[in-house]
Specification:
heterodimer, A: 467 residues, mainly beta, five-stranded antiparallel β-sheet, four-stranded antiparallel β-sheet, 2 helices, 40% strand, SERTA_dom (chain B)
C-alpha cells in the first residue's frame, strides 16, 4: 500500500474514448477528495504547470498555492488489465510559500510557474520548481526498508538498560511501507528582479537557465550564490522598453544553444560560445506581419507565449494567441508550418482585449516522435495537429463530456454555415475555462491536461507505441 | 462580452449571423453600434487602453508583458488617431481629443498621486534593487561593467526628468486646462465623447494640441518610472 507524505491515493475512474486520428484513449480523471484541505475548490488549487519526467514514469504538477503533486505510473500488471499503467499520487509537498519583500513592500506569490525534471542519475529523482523569484531544487527519494534490532536502543528508540543486554545482534534491514521523502537541496534566490517565466535544464546536466521579463541567467546546479547573466534586454532608459522575454529553452542536444521568444513574436537563437553576454542572437526567427490581417491587436496576438524544441532538436514549436507554428532551425524567414488553433476568434479580438483574454498564455507540446503537436484553447478544449496527415482534432477535457467507457468524441466549433448537432457556437464558448498547460509523455501516447484545478490524464489503450 | 457562455436557440443564431461580425464586440447599449466606423471604434479602444494602462500601473507589481503590450497598442491607436484628415467627419475629431481631455483631467488626481509616490520611491528602490546585480555579474569579467552602466544610466536619465517634473509641480502640467469643464466620471467618456461638443468649444482650442503630447509624455514617464521601480506583477 503506497503511503505518501500528505497525499492520498486516489481511485481512478476509467473512461475510454476514440479519436479520428486512429488513436483511442482512456481518460483518468482524478476526483477531488473530500476532507483534504488542499482538495477543496479554492483558487490555490488552480494548476499552473504540468511536466512529465524524462521516462514518463513521473508527472509533476504545480499549483497556485505553491504545492507540487507528483504522480507515478503504476507498472502494468496482468492481474489488473484495466489499470494499464495508470497514474496515482506519489508525493505532495509545499514547494514555495508566499513571501513578503520588505524592501519593496511587495508580496511574492507562491504560485509555481514552472517545473523541470533533472535527468535521473541515481535512485533519487530531482526537479526544479520556480515561482516568480526563487528556484528550488528538490530531491525525491524512496525509503522502503528500515533497520531493526539495534543493540543499544529499543524499537521506540529509547536507550536500553545495558544490564538487560546479554548478547549482541546485528541490525537487519526489514521492509516497511514505502515512504517518499522530499527535501529541498538547493535554493537559488535573488537572481531576478523581474518575474521568472521559464526555466530550462541544459543537456550537460550541470547547468540550467532561468528567464524573467528582461534577463536570462545561467546557473550551475550546485552553486546557489551566483549566476551568470547571459541575456539582458533591459534598455538603458526604461521609457524605451517595448519588448519583453516571454519564454526560453535550451536546445535538447547542443548545450551551447538556447532560444528565447519575445512579446513581439520573434525568436532568438543564441550561442553561448560566441560571447559571454548573448545579447546578439545567432539567428533571429521572425515572420513578417500579414498586411491583410493587420489590426491594432497584431502585436498582442503575435506575442509568443511558449517555445519548445522538438525532441529531434531540428525544429521549434511556438504558440501565439491564434496559432501554433513549427520553425526549422535552418530557416529564419518564416515558419515551415502554421496551424490555426481558433481562428474564429480573430473577429472577436476587441472583446477579448476588453476582458483581457487576449493576454492568456497558452503552452504547446510535441509528442515523442515530433509528428503530432498539441495545445490548449477555451471552453476546456484542446487541439492536436498531425504534421504528417495534416489532420487536426478538437477534444474536450471535462467530466460532463466523457461518459464512462465511451468514446470521447471530437468537438467542433461552428462559425456559421451548417451547424451539426453537438457543435458549439463561438458565442457559447466559455472563456473562463482555458487550458493553458498541457504535457505529452516523452515516449508514449499519454497526455496530461490541466483544466483550471482538474488534471486529466488521457492514455492510448490501442496504440501504446509511437506512430 | 464573451465571458459567459450563452446558449441560444438555433433559429436565433442563424438570424444573428448576418449581423456584422465587426460590430459583434460592441454592447447593444453602446451608442456607436449603429455607426461602427473605424474612427469611433478607435476612440473607445483608446479609452479602454488608457484605462488598462491606468489599472496596470496602479498595481503594486504591474505585469511587465501586459504593460508593454498595452502601451504599444495604445501608441498604435494614437498614431492612427493623430492625422485628422484620415478620420471620418463630424463627431470623431472633437470626440477623440475631448475624450482624452476627460480622461486626463478626471484621472489626473489619481495619476499625479501615483506619479508622485513613484518618483519619491524611485531612487530608493532602484538603489536597493542593485543588490542582486553584483552577484549575477561575477562570472564573465566584462559583464560587471556592462551590468552597472545601464542601471546607472537609468538613474542619471531619470534625475533631471524627476527634477523638472517636481520643479514645475505636477499641477503645472495641467494648469492650462480648465478642469471645471471636465467634471465627469472616469468612465462616462464613451457616450460623452460621441456627442459633437459645441459646449466644449472655448476651452478646446488650446487643449487638443497639448493633450496628445501631454498624454504621450505622461505615459512615457509613467511607464519609465513605474517599470523601473516596480518589478512586474504575477503572470497571467
Amino acid at each position: 500500500m503506497l503511503v505518501t507524505e500528505g497525499g492520498v491515493p486516489l481511485v481512478p475512474t476509467c473512461k475510454k474514448w476514440g479519436l479520428e486520428m486512429g488513436l483511442s484513449f482512456f481518460s483518468k480523471h482524478l476526483p477531488i477528495q473530500e476532507g483534504q484541505p488542499w482538495a477543496l475548490k479554492t483558487p490555490a488549487d488552480i494548476i499552473s504547470t504540468v511536466e512529465f519526467n524524462h521516462t514518463g514514469e513521473l508527472l509533476a504538477t504545480g499549483d497556485k498555492g505553491g504545492r507540487v503533486v507528483i504522480f507515478q505510473r503504476e507498472p502494468e500488471s496482468k492481474n489488473a488489465p484495466h489499470s494499464q499503467g495508470e497514474y496515482d499520487v506519489y508525493s505532495t509537498f509545499q514547494s514555495h510559500e508566499p513571501e513578503f519583500d520588505y524592501l519593496k513592500s511587495l508580496e511574492i506569490e507562491e504560485k509555481i510557474n514552472k517545473i523541470k525534471w533533472l535527468p535521473q542519475q541515481n535512485a533519487a529523482h530531482s526537479l526544479l520548481s520556480t515561482n516568480d523569484k526563487t528556484i528550488k531544487l528538490w530531491k525525491i527519494t524512496e525509503r522502503d526498508k528500515r533497520p531493526e534490532g539495534y543493540n543499544l536502543k529499543d524499537e521506540e528508540g529509547k536507550l536500553k538498560d545495558l544490564s538487560t543486554v546479554t548478547s549482541l545482534q546485528v541490525p537487519v534491514l526489514k521492509p516497511m511501507d514505502l515512504m517518499v521523502e522530499v527535501s529541498p537541496r538547493r535554493i537559488f534566490a535573488n537572481g531576478h528582479t523581474y518575474h521568472i517565466n521559464s526555466i530550462s535544464v541544459n543537456s550537460d546536466c550541470e547547468t540550467y537557465m532561468s528567464a524573467d521579463d528582461l534577463r536570462i541567467n545561467l546557473w550551475h546546479l550546485a552553486i546557489t550564490d551566483r549566476s551568470f547573466n547571459i541575456v539582458d534586454i533591459k534598455p538603458a532608459n526604461m521609457e524605451d522598453l517595448t519588448e519583453v522575454i516571454t519564454a526560453s529553452e535550451f536546445h535538447p542536444h547542443h548545450c551551447n544553444l538556447f532560444v528565447y521568444s519575445s512579446s513581439k513574436g520573434s525568436l532568438r537563437l543564441c550561442d553561448m560560445r560566441a560571447a559571454a553576454l548573448c545579447d546578439k542572437h545567432s539567428k533571429l526567427f521572425e515572420e513578417p506581419e500579414d498586411p491583410s490581417n493587420r489590426s491594432f491587436f497584431s502585436e498582442i496576438i503575435s506575442s509568443v507565449s511558449d517555445v519548445k524544441f522538438s525532441h529531434s532538436g531540428r525544429y521549434m514549436l511556438t504558440r501565439d494567441y491564434l496559432t501554433v507554428k513549427v520553425w526549422d532551425l535552418n530557416m529564419e524567414a518564416r515558419p515551415i508550418e502554421t496551424y490555426q488553433v481558433h481562428d474564429y476568434l480573430r473577429s472577436k479580438l476587441c472583446s477579448l482585449y476588453e476582458n483581457d483574454c487576449i493576454f492568456d498564455k497558452f503552452e504547446c507540446a510535441w509528442n515523442g516522435s515530433d509528428s503530432v503537436i498539441m495545445t490548449g484553447a477555451y471552453n476546456n478544449f484542446f487541439r492536436m495537429f498531425d504534421r504528417n496527415t495534416k489532420r487536426d482534432v478538437t477534444l474536450e477535457a471535462s467530466r460532463e463530456s466523457s461518459k464512462p467507457r465511451a468514446v470521447l468524441k471530437p468537438r467542433r466549433v461552428c462559425v456559421g454555415g451548417k451547424r451539426r448537432r453537438d457543435d458549439i457556437s463561438v458565442d457559447s464558448l466559455d472563456f473562463t475555462k482555458k487550458i493553458l498547460h498541457t504535457a505529452w509523455h516523452p515516449a508514449e501516447n499519454i497526455i496530461a491536461i490541466a483544466a483550471t484545478n482538474n488534471l486529466y490524464i488521457f492514455q492510448d489503450k490501442v496504440n501504446s507505441d509511437m506512430h | 462580452m464573451l465571458s459567459k457562455g450563452l446558449k441560444r436557440k438555433r433559429e436565433e443564431e442563424e438570424e444573428k449571423e448576418p449581423l456584422a461580425v465587426d460590430a459583434w464586440w460592441l454592447d447593444p447599449g453602446h451608442a456607436s453600434v449603429a455607426q461602427a466606423p473605424p474612427a469611433v471604434a478607435s476612440s473607445s479602444l483608446f479609452d479602454l487602453s488608457v484605462l488598462k494602462l491606468h489599472h496596470s500601473l496602479q498595481q503594486s507589481e504591474p505585469d511587465l508583458r501586459h504593460l508593454v503590450l498595452v502601451v504599444n497598442t495604445l501608441r498604435r491607436i494614437q498614431a492612427s488617431m493623430a492625422p485628422a484628415a484620415a478620420l471620418p467627419p463630424v463627431p470623431s475629431p472633437p470626440a477623440a481629443p475631448s475624450v482624452a481631455d476627460n480622461l486626463l483631467a478626471s484621472s489626473d488626481a489619481a495619476l499625479s498621486a501615483s506619479m508622485a509616490s513613484l518618483l519619491e520611491d524611485l531612487s530608493h528602490i532602484e538603489g536597493l534593487s542593485q543588490a542582486p546585480q553584483p552577484l549575477a555579474d561575477e562570472g564573465p569579467p566584462g559583464r560587471s561593467i556592462g551590468g552597472a552602466a545601464p542601471s546607472l544610466g537609468a538613474l542619471d536619465l531619470l534625475g533631471p526628468a524627476t527634477g523638472c517634473l517636481l520643479d514645475d509641480g505636477l499641477e503645472g502640467l495641467f494648469e492650462d486646462i480648465d478642469t471645471s469643464m471636465y467634471d465627469n466620471e472616469l468612465w462616462a467618456p464613451a457616450s460623452e465623447g460621441l456627442k459633437p461638443g459645441p459646449e466644449d468649444g472655448p476651452g478646446k482650442e488650446e487643449a487638443p494640441e497639448l493633450d496628445e503630447a501631454e498624454l504621450d509624455y505622461l505615459m512615457d514617464v509613467l511607464v519609465g518610472t513605474q517599470a523601473l521601480e516596480r518589478p512586474p506583477g504575477p503572470g497571467r
